Amino acid sequence: MQSLSNRAKKLEKKPMTFAERAYLPAIFQGLSITMQHFFRAATKKQITIRYPEETRPFSPVFRGLHVLKRDEQGRERCTACGLCAVACPAEAITMVAGERKKGEQNLYREEKYAVSYEINMLRCIFCGLCEEACPKAAIYLQADKMAPPRYERDEFIYGKDRLVEPTSPDNRSARGIQLTPEQAEKLRTQLA
Fold first, then answer.
1. What are phi and psi of 20, to 5 degrees?
2. Which portions of the chain are predicted below pLDDT 50?
3. What pLDDT does residue 174 have?
C-alpha cells in the first residue's frame, strides 16, 4: 500500500560489517567520551569535593535543616495546629498535640503545644511549604545548614530534641545540635 503523502522512505536492510557486529564503533564512542572527561578533570578544577570536610557554597534559594523557633522570651512558638503537616507534600511531619499545664507558661507560648514533633528527613523534599504554612513562624528552614550524613535510618527522624532552638547560645542540644556563631550572637542580643 502506498502512503498518501508519498513521503515514505524505503529502508534497505544492509548486512552488518564485522566491526558493527563486534560493537567497535559504540565502544570507541564511549571511550572518547570517557577520555574527554578524563582530560577535562586533569586540566581544570576538580569537579568532585570531599564532603563533609568540604562544602560547596549554597544557592541563595537553598532551604536547609529545619529548626523550631522560640519567641523572645525563650518559649516554644509551635502551637501544634498541624498546618505544616497538612501542607507537607511528602507527609514527612508528624506531631502529637498537648495542653499546657499550670506553671508551664514559661515553656510554651500558647495553651496548646507539640508534645511530640518529628520530621522524617528521608521523606522531606525541603520544599519549604511547612515554613510558609505556619501561622506562628515557628518552623524555619535554615539557609546555611544541611542534613548531616548518618549511617542509621532512625537517625534521620528528627524529634524536638534536635529541632527546637537551644535556649542558651552556648548550649548544645542532647543530640549535638549547636547554633552557628551568627545564630548564637543573634540569640545573645535577643536575650540581653
1. -70, -35
2. 174-176
3. 46
